[in-house]
Amino acid sequence: MIRRATPSDVPAACDIVFAALRSFGIEPDPRGTDADIYTFGARSTHDDWVYERDARVSGLVALEPHDDGGWVSKLFVAADARGVGVGRSLLTRAIDSARERGYTRVGLRTRTVFTEAIRLYERMGFTRGPEPESRGAGEDRIYELRLG
After folding, report:
1. For a FRET experiment, which of 23, 40, 103, 117 has its CA 20 to 30 Å from that of 93?
2. What is the Cα–Cα distance from 110 to 129, expressed in whole angstroms?
3. Do the domain assignments include residue 90?
4. Has residue 134 been placed in a domain?
5. Cα separation, 76 vs 15, whole angstroms
6. What is the CATH number for 98?
7. How many domains, in total, are found in the chain?
8. Is residue 28 part of a domain?
9. d(CA 132, CA 111)
10. pLDDT tens digits for 59-99?
11. First CA to last CA across the chain, in angstroms?
12. Cα separations (Å) of 144 from 13, 17, 72, 106, 131?
């Protein structure tokens, strides 16, 4: 089940995001790059969603406004919930939300090491854009989906 996130989802969201990052050898930066997770579910300008599986949060996605479109700023799935469509369902929900808001595109930044996520983005029609100007957060790929 996908539902809107609430501030009470922050502990589960932190666990999922930080564990996923560590599984790829990336140390979370809760006071910098990853600080936005602490406002997950409480931002009026964002559409934050969680996927509940077996009565617990198993994934999350955040869509924020960006220029004439939306920006997927978080898409993470718990390790034990990967490979069963949770990520696809969450990304689809974010895209639907972007359409509902009248956005013309959805973009995101990711890291080359997130190969499963990259395959998902490409299967869902996202195309790779130019390399990001700043790699301060380690994100080295940009993807975009035009909404028509």
Report:
1. 23
2. 11
3. yes
4. no
5. 10
6. 3.40.630.30
7. 1
8. yes
9. 11
10. 999 999 988 899 998 999 999 999 999 999 999 999 999 99
11. 27
12. 24, 22, 10, 6, 12
In the chain, how long is the greatest CA-to-CA distance? Answer: 41
- DSSP result, the chain: -EEE--GGGHHHHHHHHHHHHHHTT----TTTTTGGGGGTT--TTSEEEEEEETTEEEEEEEEEEETTEEEEEEEEE-GGGTTTTHHHHHHHHHHHHHHHTT-SEEEEEE-TT-HHHHHHHHHTT-EE-PPPS--TTS--EEEEEE--
How does 80-102 read in b/e, with b if 16+ C-beta sit within 10 Å? Answer: ebbeeebbebbbebbbebbeeee
Q: Phi, psi (5° rounding) for residue 31?
A: -100, 0
Residue type at 113 in one-letter notation: V
| 82: containing domain | 2-104
pLDDT of residue 73: 87
The residue whose two tokens read 């600080």 is: 35
Within-domain flag for 136: no
